[in-house]
Each structure stands twice: as C-alpha cells, then as structure tokens.
Design brief:
The protein is α/β, with parallel strands linked by helices. It folds into two domains: 129 residues, no CATH class; 130 residues, 2-Layer Sandwich (Nucleotidyltransferase, domain 5), CATH 3.30.420. It is built from eleven helices and eight strands. Strands 1, 2, 5, 6, 7 and 8 form a six-stranded mixed β-sheet that branches. Strands 3-4 form a two-stranded antiparallel sheet. The two termini are 43 Å apart. The N terminus and C terminus are likely disordered. Pfam families: Nterm_IS4. Keywords: Membrane, Transmembrane, Transmembrane helix. This is Transposase IS4 N-terminal domain-containing protein.
Length: 265
C-alpha cells in the first residue's frame, strides 16, 4: 500500500513535458529511486561519515564530498549510464525533492573522475556498514523459520573494466577453456532471504576460494539468524568456525549431512 500511495503522489507532480508516456515513466522511476536513496542515507549521516573518515573539506568545491558520495551511490541505481547522465539524474531528482541549488552547473566526466579519486572508497564502505541491515518485519514472507531470521551466504562474479590494474588485482578466470574477455571480481554477500537485503559483503579475485571470502561475513551474523549456504561452502573447518561462537546455525545444502544433523528426536 505504501508503494502504491507513493506512486500516485509522484505521478501527479511529474513533468508532463518529459518526453511522452515513456519519458514520464522513466523520470518517475528515477525519482522514486533517488527519493528512497536520500531517505535511507540522510545527508547528516553522510556528513558524519565524511568527518569520521577525514574527508571534510576546507574549501568550497564545485563537487563537494557530500555530493560525490551521493553520486557514487546513484551509480548503483543507474549503472548502465555514463557519469554525466548519472549526475544529471541525481541533480534532477534532488531538485524535484527541493534539495538542490538551482544555480549549480553539471560537471564534466573528467571532473567527476577526479572527485571520485579524492573521495576514495573508505567513506562509501563506512556508509554501507552503517546503513546495511535486515529489513524484514514479523510478517514478511520467506524471512522467518519459526523465530529465526533466515539469511544466506552466496557469491557472484562480476565483469570489471578491462584494465591492467583490474587484471592484476582480480584476474580474468577462464570461459570455455579460454581467458575470460574481462577481468572479474568475486563478491560474497550475507543477505536476508525474505527481502534480499545484503547486510555485509566482501570481494576478491576471481580465483579466491569462496570460503575465504565468506569467513569475514560471519562477524555480521547476529543471534537469532539461521544462515544458509550451498554445498560449495561446506567443509569441516568452515562449519566449526561458523558454529564456534554459539550464536548462529548454519545449514549447508548437503542433504546427507543435514539428514544426519537434524534427525527427528
């Protein structure tokens, strides 16, 4: 019901001259995404993280650190768009939300690249750590097994730009007996099954064992979570490490082991 109400409200105020029905629908989707983003990641939190990570600026710039932080977050919403188009959508959405200075001019792609380099990864990493959390309520379908919150550890491989630095850092892997066309990064995440909210993630090279990347995720498991993982994660060492804290339950998807571990009675 909340989503329907939000949609109706925004349709009433969207610009009718935005390029026809398709253009209006695209702009509406952009604005909904940016509205949710700015609600979840409030500017006061961004400023706090920038101060804690030493990114508070002493002089006024065309691209202040707060704007660059939101720009990087917006890139995750519009990952198929070029830098300038992402920034245009960000500015358009913030103007729509009355959170933008009308006199500000869009920067060039090169200026955005330099601003990203100044900001670095640490503030974004810290923002994620402070915001990412389980989202399911008591009635969320698929989120609970009894009173246990159902979580899962899983991995994915993503193509990254074909540069020497990326190849050195992550490797290419093999596709059909040949080197993959692009370097690949392996990402392991701890996610909530009912909402798909990823509350922690770690990345590494494509040839790194998934269990090595999954080990740091165990620190984010809280009491009352049931953590699922497929058979690729199963080993005696990983099981012992995962259960040593006494806080969690891990069900590896190896049917014979589950049957032995959870016999009736």
């Amino acid at each position: 019901m909340r989503c329907k109400g939000l949609r109706i409200t925004l349709i009433r105020v969207v610009d009718e001259g935005a390029g026809g029905e398709s253009g209006r629908r695209d702009r509406l989707t952009d604005r909904i995404g940016l509205g949710v983003l700015t609600r979840l990641v409030h500017r006061d939190l961004v400023d706090e993280v920038l101060a804690d990570t030493g990114r508070t600026e002493r002089r006024r710039r065309l691209l202040p650190a707060r704007v660059v932080a939101y720009f990087v977050l917006a890139m995750t919403l519009f990952f198929d768009d070029a830098y300038e188009e992402v920034m245009r959508k960000l500015v358009d959405g913030l103007r729509f939300l009355r959170s933008w200075d009308e006199d500000w001019q869009l920067p060039t792609s090169s200026a955005l690249c330099q601003a990203r380099a100044r900001l670095g990864a640490e503030p974004i990493r810290e923002l994620y750590a402070r915001v990412a959390r389980p989202l399911a309520g008591a009635g969320t379908p698929g989120a609970w097994l009894g009173d246990l919150r159902v979580m899962a550890i899983d991995g994915v491989q993503l193509d990254v730009p074909d540069t020497a630095d990326n190849e050195d850092a992550f490797g290419r892997g093999v596709s059909q007996g040949l080197d993959a066309p692009y370097p690949k990064v392996k990402v392991l995440g701890l996610g909530e099954c009912g909402t798909h909210a990823v509350i922690d993630a770690h990345l590494g090279g494509v040839l790194v064992d998934e269990r090595e990347l999954a080990r740091p995720l165990l620190a984010s498991v809280e009491p009352g979570m049931l953590v699922l993982a497929d058979r690729g994660f199963y080993s005696r060492e990983f099981w012992q490490e995962a259960t040593a804290t006494g806080r969690i339950a891990v069900a590896g998807a190896v049917s014979t082991e589950i049957a032995r571990s959870h016999r009736p009675g």
